Amino acid sequence: MADLSVNVGGIKSPNPFWLASAPPTNSGYQVMRAFEAGWGGAVWKTLGDPIVNVSSRFGGFHFEGARMLGFNNIELITDRPLEDNLREIREVKRAFPDRAVIASLMVDNVKEVWQEIVKKVQDVGVDGFELNFGCPHGMSERGMGSAVGQSPEFLRQATEWVVEVAEVPVIVKLTPNITDIRYTARAAAQGGAHAVSMINTINSLIGVDLNTWTPIPNVDGKGAHGGYCGPAVKPIALNMVADCARDPLVGIPISGIGGVSTWQDAVEYMLLGASGVQVCTAVMHHGFRIVEDMIDGLNQYLDARGLSSAMDLVGKSVDRVGNWGDLNLEYKVAARIDQDKCIRCNKCFIACEDAAHQCIDRVSDGSGQLALVVDEEECVGCNLCSIVCPVEDCIEMVRVDSGGRTFSWRERQAL
Amino acid sequence: MSEFALSDQPQHRLDQNVHRPLTKAEVLTEAHRCLYCYDAPCAAACPTHIDVPSFIRKITTDNVTGSARVIMDANPLGASCARVCPTEDLCEGACVLGKDAAPIRISDLQRYSTDWVRERNIDLFSPGTATGKRVAVVGGGPAGLAAARELARFGHAVTIYEAKEQLGGLNTYGIVPFRLPRAVALWEAQQVVKLGVTVQTNVLVGRDVAIGDLAENFDALVLAFGMGNVPPLQIPGEDLQGVWDALDFISQVKSGQSVGDIGDRVVVIGAGNTAIDAATCSKRLNAENVAIYYRRTAREMTAYPFEYEFAKQEGVEFRWLCAPVRILGEGNRVRAVEFVKTRLELSDNSERPIPVPMPGTEFAVEVDTVIRSTGQSRLTSLLDELHIIHDGGSVRVDQQMRTNQPGVFAAGDCAFRRGVGDAMVVEAAEQGKIAAAAVHQHLLAADESEKWRGESHG
Question: Do A344 and B35 make contact, defined as CB atoms within 8 angstroms?
């Protein structure tokens, strides 16, 4: 049994799985249920001046029978009085002292206003703050959320105001709706933040109703852009996490957010530099109970690999993420198709034929059927066939270069 | 009562389909499971080459009309075939998923799409620009309908001559309603008629229409008249009351006409798909004991394995290696059948072993009804009148379904020969399509000298 506890910028929790600031952490009732299910921490639904929401609020991106590959919302921060939230936070902390309770905050970008709420909230015993500089819809129109988070200067300043009075660690939650997230991450670090969390949701319009031609979600015949999250955004978030993790000017811990649904997702985030993860969409899809397998699966994984602590994963793949110009041009793989496993769906053939390099041939196998055979001389090793293949381990990418030489584009340019 | 619980009422039971349609949820789950193979083996395994991945993908994009169009374009009998094709030997047997998991339920998905357009009265095709050419199709069964549909889409003026009251052939009259409802067969026929095809029902060519008139009025002729009744067993007692021709029996049941009281004990002689239909029909008419008697064994019978399984589930019994000797009556009503046990002898001339009666093993079975189902007789008189070369009623055709007579084509069961292809609806549909394409080619190429005139070119 490995030690699953983590420390994210000074905030400790018994496992790396936190609920992100979102509808599942809207109330004490919900967070209590989550902690009973085993969640290690919860970032409370953003506190601030209570807002008024619209109806409806959410939209799902479904693909080929799989539901909620992506998820979009136009819901704002908490619509409940601060006093109610604070009372419930205190009750939750009392019931679950070992879990991390982090208060997400968003207020008008004025020093006094920031410092006032920080003082009020830390009195009830939160373990940390998360400054919501990421929300891309609604609040940003009022000069909050990503309106602050898209300006490194505003973000640094607000962070400084908070850190000045905060007695617990401060996480700055970053928006992905920016050209290079490292700039705002660095600003957070300069402002004194103890960690950054990423990513908040991505600007999105989830779709249009084909019958009514109204955008989704529909609010009385109209729509507005929302924030996109869920499994589909994970690759975008992983890239941003890795970018920040390998940037020495950022240099503070990362809480990974974006499409985390399983323990495997969490491991990937941690390998790329996150000290823990936050989850929302998967819970909105399946409920709090999913954490059971996240904990169990991570535990099994760590045990199987002989690792004693989840923290041992943090950043282990960061060094392997580099620039394209440093990749070895001499390394070469080619696809090899296992004829015994192949079911002859021909998907690899048509993918290679139409969309890659025309190097899979259909060759008579003697029984009147056409076998799929890779022309290894022509194969560029792009992976496409192995990606489209529906049979597990049927197409293997095999190394075909001699293995001795390394030669990058950068080296080539230097010649 | 749920829609699919078995009722005691014979009419309910006759209408109760062998298996229920998939729910929308099942359809979508199944459709999404399809890999959308390239050059898919399922499509290659379909005699009409339905682009199965395409029609399934269209289901997933909520383009069900488009899906049905893909099916019916390739197979004018696509709705019937969704219910009667031996799919484990065809598309589903070829599904690549079958190697490691369950194959896609292609026929059920095909049924969903075709039901969808049928229930909404959506017409899928329109006639081609009129060519001024006239084609007569003799027989409005699967092959004739398929040929007529394609010919109409080419723009030719088509007349179907149908001896029965309704179009559809065996789909309308010969396949039990609980496997293929009459409404489905008639809808398919209606789709063809709507293309402007002229239909003359209750008309027997050669009797009600002279060959000379056909030659006068048409530029080409497609023979698709199928086969005839069940041939006589040529044993004493066949004319007794209570002895049925299986096709008449099923036809009457399917048309909603009474077959009278068939009693509790029914014997079916023969073990093809029609014999199974007659037997299961009898069970659903509440006969207590229904047994199929066959002079060979399960291995040699022509019924599909799934039909055999279905019959057993319905409670039909099977008696192998028994040949009928005579039918015994009381007055003019059947009372018993006398059988003799047989043994099988391998033959040099036949693929199937020959059943040889074993003298002294005769036994009698008390019955209320006997149903003869030992294949179908061949119709030869029209062929002879037209000077068409045939082998005992099986029209000799080339790959384009051309007969020896220029301008005369044949498709379906009348051109079916044992050992070449299979007498399936789907095969008849494909032959009808091929014949129509050949007719079209012929009409485009033919100058006046090659026009069919009904003369012997022998």
Answer: no
The question of whether A135 is a catalytic residue gets the answer yes
pLDDT band per the 50, 70, 90 thresholds, residue B3: very low
Give the whole-angstrom CA distance, residue B298 versus residue B48: 29
Question: CB pairs below 8 Å between A and B: how many?
Answer: 33
pLDDT band for position B88 (cuts 50, 70, 90): very high
Q: Given a cut of 80, is residue B7 above it in pLDDT? A: no
CB atoms B28 and A65 under 8 Å:
yes
Query: What pLDDT, in 10s, does the model give residues A358-367?
Result: 999 999 988 8
DSSP A34-88: HHHHT-SEEEEEEESS-----S--EEEEEETTEEEEEEEE---S--S-HHHHHHH
Structure tokens of A256? Answer: 């990974």
Interface contact B32-A349, CB threshold 8 A = no
pLDDT of residue B457: 47
The pairs formed by A296-301 with CB atoms below 8 angstroms and a separation of 24 or more are: A296/A263, A297/A262, A297/A263, A297/A264, A298/A2, A298/A4, A298/A15, A298/A16, A298/A263, A298/A266, A298/A267, A299/A1, A299/A2, A299/A4, A301/A263, A301/A267
List the 183-212 stretch of B: residues with Cβ below 8 A of A.
Answer: none
CB A42 within 8 A of CB A64: no
Q: How much is the pTM?
A: 0.92
With the C-alpha atoms ordered A347, A352, A353, A356, is the resulting torsion angle positive or negative?
A: positive
The span from the CA of B439 to the CA of B446, in Å, is 10
Contact between chains at B29 and A344 (C-beta distance less than 8 A): no
Q: What is the pLDDT of residue A294?
A: 98
Contact (CB, 8 A) for A18 and A318: no
Residue B413, SS3 per DSSP: helix
> Which chain B residues are closer than 8 Å to A391 by Cβ?
100
Q: For A225-258, how does the pLDDT look when each residue is reduced to its tens digit (9 = 90+)? A: 999 999 999 999 999 999 999 999 999 999 999 9
How much is the CA Rg of chain A, to the nearest whole Å? 24
Provide the 8-state DSSP code for A140.
G
| Distance from the A358 Cα atom to the nearest Cα atom in chain B, whole angstroms | 15
Residue B356 forms contact with A (CB below 8 Å): no
Is the bond preceding residue A217 a cis peptide, omega within 30 degrees? Answer: yes
> What is the ipTM for the molecules in this complex?
0.91
Compute the nearest-CA separation of B33 from chain A (Å). 9
CA A157 to chain centre: 26
**B49/chain A closest Cα distance in angstroms:** 17
CA distance linking residue B25 with residue A287, whole number of Å? 23
User: What pLDDT does B281 receive?
Assistant: 96
Structure tokens, B454: 């009904």
Stretch B349-368: mean pLDDT: 92
